[in-house]
Specification:
Radius of gyration of chain A: 29 Å
Strand content of chain A: under 5%
Helix content of chain A: 55-70%
Largest interface: A-B, 41 and 38 residues
Strand content of chain B: 35-45%
Distance between the termini of chain B: 94 Å
CATH superfamily of the largest domain in chain B: TolB, C-terminal domain
Structural class of chain A: mainly alpha
CATH topology of the largest domain in chain B: Neuraminidase
Number of domains of chain A: 3
Number of helices of chain A: 31
Shape of chain B: globular
Helix content of chain B: under 10%
Number of domains of chain B: 2
Largest sheet of chain A: none
Structural class of chain B: mainly beta
Oligomer: heterodimer
Chain lengths: 541, 489
């Protein structure tokens, strides 16, 4: 009795708790990320379109549940419950397994847990597995054998359409229990027939009908499943599949999306991020918190860490798109956002992209287009209120102008100059923003930062005002100025008054050490947060 | 008591329906504001019902009355016409007009609007349309496909899409609306050009050492033995001001003609000139001329807004595959400050429709793009004002097989998403008012359809295209190589 209780409550409970804690504490940004790359709508059209393909019901259920990933705790709980339920149903199908057999009932759930570590693995996979096993459990409880087998054969076709190829688990479960060749043969034939029929009628290639239409975000290639081997090692498999880099990126992306600038800086102090997209988030946070002059308190890897190059994927363009939005480069923001959304491999839409595209179109005065995005968002659970509030701005330019955020962006957009975006001429583009709108301090700070990171001292000196800074000219600006000054001046005796003598003194010491061949690691300890160190020792710029 | 329940329900329903029915209307003195704007449009007798909704209206009551006296009445949240009754009404009024009397119910009051008309043309229209549905995106292709639409119903069928083919599906082209002759270019890792001449679909690698790029912008020779293409080095750039989004431009372009029977690419110095960019080829319906656009090269991006294309013509001998030795300029656009693109001669040989814009050739992104018509007999050219929209791109037009209808892409709906409009044009080149491609629930459809109708083209019959075979040919099959100017085997 005690063993049954342990099996039925304690072990599954512990398993669910462990899974929940794993996603909630160690993998929350993967959870958040899943929610951002879909646009679940409460509408018949959405329902019908989603269900129109093999596996559509599982996909719809998966998407329905994914919308609750808006809260990482809710998403973690859902994943935990799904995996625990799969284990429980597996155990129920195994009837009264031996202790070893019972332990093996956790294998499917652990495999799926590893699968879920992949940012492109869709939760509908879990739904498909769970529903397939549940259906098997239900059908196997039917007593009259003829009726049971008849229903099993019919259900095979139905489940293939509703759940996709993972409904093969239903077939396997029934076969293992029945151990009769005729129903087994019939079910296998029906299953194969489904694949052929959907290939002929709906046009899907065989490999997609076998792998599943919507189980994985990339339609034309499935993962190599290297983790299957690792899964034998259980927890080690989770460890191997854990994508720490992506989790870190998604963290910065999440914080950027939520405008949690101080949190970004706090995380950056802990993580010391070095990748361009993460640095773009950190640098945006520095500017938004009025700390642009503290650029070199953090690792910098060149202009790419300020406004990264465009990449052809659905995740990375989103942070630069936020920077362009804040800068008033609305068209560039729109382009990055639109492209990111259209590169989602399974062609789903993104709530985040829809929100931003509604905003860019509102700011640009394309009310009818904005309205279309907002109407779609009105059919969602978590974005309905936001969309309704913004809908009031449609066809109301006066209200947009009066809106603190959108009105400001309209005022700092380019009005006189127009040009084709050219990343090689970023200095010019940012320069036009500053020229047309001197009040666009963010553009000025990006212009200065771009020149500093690009090691373009002449450009920096040309644009930096060197006055009007509360508390004096920031130290890193003084450092850059001094570097340029020393390049042309005979001595440092007549440096301008805004240069702190302590900075001159530090510069003299740095140049002495640098010229004397002091190793970079030693210099980094004393001068690692200076512009000079960046200028001479950061590679790849 | 039980017997009284149905009676009570009947009374309630009657009362309810009386309350919702048309009563005490007030005359508005104007025509109704409807979506799509089907007021006073000329339509073919076989078109699917022109369902429409009325702006800010809870219920509508619409009566169609044909000149022959046939009446069709609908009542509901929008005007949705039963297909069979609609067809009967149109068939009974070919060459006549149908009066549309519409009432709208708003805030407890029925409004009676001034009637408008549908004009049912005697000119037949083709079976359907084929078009590409594509996101108005920048560089990524997203989910795109080529679809066929039966014009007598709302049925749309996917022909090929990125769901099956992992590559960008480019220009599709049929031979004078006959879908048995097909050319379709696919970009990407497994890219190639699919060509079908009546029967067998084949995959080709169209890039040769003598051409600057793969073959694009196809146009079939009426004999079906040649396809004209252009080779373009195309790039795009992204504007920063709100009014514009992006610009597509060529750094170089030439024109070639593919001789299908002998697998050779034909060209001549006049079509591959260093001093001109030639693009958008189109054969005349008799097959003896090749129309194209030509511009003087300019520095990009500095002189982008000065790139202007003229409309030109060169003779072509289908027997020998030889070109004429001079180029005639039919529309000298550059000195006049505008640019010509996308020439499409009518199949009856009388007219040539083209797009004008202030510069460049990728007019779908130009708000000032308008359709113009050139009378090939007189050389007179005029703006198709009644078909064009004042401040949105109108472009990518194609003729029906009898040259009495044309379809084009217009962004007049919201400025961003291209929609397919069909327009009647009479024998004198006078266009009617274009109408938006009908949908069962047009407001819902077009509000949620965030893809553009790209390169709409009439087809005389359903398109037969096995997308699996196409993909298999591209992915696994050995593509045949285009040969440039080699001797006839």
């Amino acid at each position: 009795m005690e063993r049954i209780s342990l099996k039925q409550t304690l072990f599954p409970g512990l398993f669910a708790l462990a899974v929940f804690l794993f996603f909630w504490l160690a993998y929350p940004y993967h959870v958040y990320g899943q929610e951002q790359f879909q646009l679940f709508q409460f509408s018949w059209r959405y329902w019908a379109e989603t269900l129109a393909v093999p596996g559509g019901l599982a996909d719809w259920c998966g998407r329905f549940l994914t919308q609750f990933f808006y809260y990482s705790a809710a998403g973690s709980l859902i994943l935990a419950l799904l995996l625990a339920a799969i284990q429980a149903v597996t155990a129920a199908l195994a009837k009264s397994p031996s202790p070893l057999g019972y332990a093996l009932t956790y294998v499917p759930s652990i495999l799926l847990l590893i699968y879920c570590c992949d940012a492109d693995a869709m939760p509908c996979t879990l739904v498909a597995v769970l529903l397939s096993l549940l259906c098997a459990l239900a059908v196997l409880r039917i007593r009259p054998a003829l009726l049971r087998n008849g229903i099993a054969v019919v259900a095979t076709a139905l489940l293939y359409f509703l759940l996709g190829p993972l409904s093969v688990l239903f077939v396997i479960a029934c076969l293992v229990h029945e151990r009769k060749w005729l129903p087994g043969l019939l079910m296998a034939a029906v299953f194969a027939l489904c694949i052929v029929c959907f290939h002929k009628t709906m046009g899907y290639p065989y490999y997609r009908l076998l792998y599943g239409i919507n189980y994985y975000r990339f339609h034309h290639h499935m993962p190599a499943w290297p983790w299957i081997a690792a899964a034998a090692l259980g927890a080690l498999g989770v460890f191997l599949a854990y994508d720490g880099e992506m989790e870190t990126y998604l963290k910065y992306d999440f914080l950027t999306r939520r405008f949690q600038w101080n949190a970004i800086l706090a995380e950056a102090r802990k993580d010391n991020p070095q990748k361009p997209f993460e640095m773009a988030s950190v640098n945006l946070a520095l500017v938004k918190t009025g700390n642009a002059h503290r650029l070199f308190d953090f690792y910098q890897n060149g202009p790419d860490g300020l406004l990264p190059k465009y990449t052809n994927d659905y995740i990375h363009p989103l942070i630069p798109s936020e920077a362009y939005f804040q800068l008033g480069m609305i068209n560039s923001c729109q382009r990055y956002t639109f492209e990111a959304q259209e590169l989602i491999p399974d062609f789903q839409k993104s709530v985040r992209a829809y929100k931003r595209l509604a905003e860019t179109n509102l700011v640009n005065g394309n009310h009818k287009v904005a309205e279309k995005y907002l109407k779609a968002l009105e059919k969602t659970l978590f974005y309905r209120g936001w969309a309704r509030a913004k809908m009031a701005l449609c066809d109301n330019d006066a209200a947009i102008d009066a809106d603190p955020g959108y009105g400001y962006l309209r005022s700092v957009r380019l009005h006189d100059h127009d040009f084709l975006f050219n990343r090689q001429a970023m200095e010019t583009m940012l320069g036009y923003l500053v020229q047309e709108n001197p009040a666009n301090h963010m553009a000025l700070e990006y212009l200065l930062a771009w020149n500093l990171l690009d090691k373009n001292l002449k450009g920096f000196v040309r644009f930096c005002p060197f006055e009007g800074f509360p508390g004096g000219v920031p130290r890193c600006y003084q450092e850059a100025f001094l570097l340029d000054f020393a390049d042309t001046a005979q001595s440092l005796d007549n440096v301008p008054a805004f240069i702190d003598p302590a900075v001159v003194d530090a510069f003299t010491r740095f140049m002495r050490e640098h010229g004397g061949g002091t190793p970079a690691e030693i210099l980094a300890k004393q001068f690692g947060n200076t512009y000079w160190y960046y200028y001479f020792y950061r590679l790849g710029v | 008591m039980r017997a009284r329940v149905p009676l009570l329900m009947l009374v309630l329903l009657t009362a309810l329906s009386c309350g919702r029915g048309l009563h005490d209307p007030v005359f508005s003195g104007r025509e109704p504001r409807i979506f799509p704007d089907y007021r006073d449009v000329t339509i073919p007798a076989t078109i699917a019902p022109l369902n429409f909704s009325m702006d800010k209206t809870e219920r509508v009551d619409v009566t169609l009355t044909g000149e022959d006296g046939t009446v069709l009445h609908v009542h509901g949240t929008m005007a949705r016409f039963p297909r069979r009754a609609w067809r009967k009404l149109l068939q009974a009024n070919v060459g006549k007009s149908i009066e549309v009397e519409a009432y709208g119910f708003t805030e407890g009051q029925w409004m009676q609007h001034r009637p408008f008309h549908f004009y049912v043309s005697e000119d037949a229209i083709d079976y359907g349309l084929a078009y590409r549905l594509i996101l108005p995106s920048y560089e990524g292709m997203g989910n795109l496909g080529i679809y066929e639409r039966d014009l007598s119903s709302y049925r749309q069928k996917e022909l090929i899409s990125t769901e099956e083919v992992n590559g960008c599906l480019n220009c599709h082209s049929f031979n004078q609306c006959d879908p048995k002759d097909l050319s379709l270019h696919v970009r990407g890792a497994y890219g190639g050009t699919l060509i079908r001449q009546q029967a067998e679909l084949k995959a080709f690698d169209t890039k040769t050492d003598s051409t600057i790029s793969s073959c694009v912008y196809p146009y079939w020779h009426p004999s079906g033995n040649y396809i004209a293409y252009s080779n373009n080095t195309t790039r795009q750039g992204f504007y920063q001001r709100a009014e514009n989004v992006l610009e597509v431009f060529d750094y170089a372009s030439d024109i070639v003609v593919y001789d299908i029977r002998n697998n050779r690419l034909l060209s001549c110095p006049l079509l591959k000139s260093e001093s001109a960019w030639e693009t958008f080829p189109a054969f005349s319906p008799d097959g003896k001329s090749l129309y194209f656009c030509s511009a003087s090269p300019k520095a990009i991006p500095q002189q982008l807004s000065e790139i202007r294309y003229n409309l030109c013509r060169i003779a072509f001998d289908p027997e020998s595959g030889r070109f004429g030795d001079r180029v005639d300029t039919l529309v000298l656009a550059a000195p006049a400050g505008f640019s010509v693109s996308f020439p499409r001669p009518s199949f009856d040989g009388k007219y040539l429709m083209y797009t004008v814009s202030s510069f460049g050739n990728f007019t779908i992104w130009h708000r000032d793009a308008d359709l113009c018509l050139l009378d090939l007999a007189t050389g007179a050219s005029w703006n198709l004002a009644s078909a064009n929209s004042p401040d949105a791109a109108d472009s990518y037009h194609n003729w029906s097989s009898n040259s009495r209808w044309f379809v084009f892409g217009s962004r007049r709906d919201d400025g961003v998403h291209t929609r397919a409009y069909i327009c009647h044009i009479d024998a004198d080149g006078v266009p009617g008012k274009p109408f938006l491609l009908p949908q069962n629930k047009p407001r819902e459809y077009y509000d949620t359809m965030l893809r553009s109708f790209n390169i709409p083209e009439f087809v005389t019959e359903p398109v037969s295209l096995n997308s699996h075979k196409a993909w298999r040919l591209l992915r696994r099959g050995k593509k045949e190589q285009f040969n440039y100017g080699t001797d006839i085997p």
